[in-house]
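Why do we bother with a discrete structure alphabet at all? Because it lets us treat a fold like text: something you can write down, compare, and reason about line by line. To make this less abstract, here is a complete entry for Noncanonical pyrimidine nucleotidase, YjjG family. Read it the way you would read a sentence in a foreign language you are learning: slowly, and without expecting to understand everything at once.
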Amino acid sequence: MPYSTLLFDIDDTILDFQASEKRALEKLFMHLNRPLTSEIADYYRQLNATLWQRYEKGNVTRNQLLNSRFTLLFRHFGEDIDGASIEKQYRSFLAEGHDQIPGATQLLTDLSQHHDLYIVTNGIAKTQERRVQEAGIAKYFRQMFISERIGFQKPKQAFFDFVSQKIDHFSKQNTLVIGDSLTSDILGANTYGLDSVWFNPAHLHNSTPAEPTFEIDSLTTLKTIVN
């Protein structure tokens, strides 16, 4: 039976978050009149990924994550700063980024004709809403489900409970989760009993307990799966 309901993660699945993050960091450090070295950029990405994984597990709150990441970054390099104020400026720059994964718009155009598309994201609500709008892809989605608004994050069952209750005639058998994160998208789908697609263009090794139903390295491959 074809999948009629498609739940898309947004960052590094539809929109190129890596490109947006890189540009936002560059703008932030220019704004701060500081050099952004590769060492600083690499450490920030590692630190940020760790904090988001802790958020997924419920070990830190969203506000704790956002208000601490730049404090921790600068502290690592021997400087105490007000990370919360820098965070606001960074998020403003991040919201400006809406580069797309190759083939995303055409895929959404095609799929939205015969399938119901939704966004499921752990990202920051105002940032995600602006990026989706300015990327010109909001029209393809029936609704955006954002953890900040819901009060629960992927991969928690409560997140998917909320989503299922808001979608008319929701059916687990006809629903497919598409995302790049094993610990968020795929684990969440596993826990809730949904089929999933791991978007893995870099051909990363899966060293987690999460098991995707399908694995793809190109968005165009998704058309064959959903039908």
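What the structure line is telling us, in plain words: The two ends are 8 Å apart (CA to CA). The mean pLDDT is 95.
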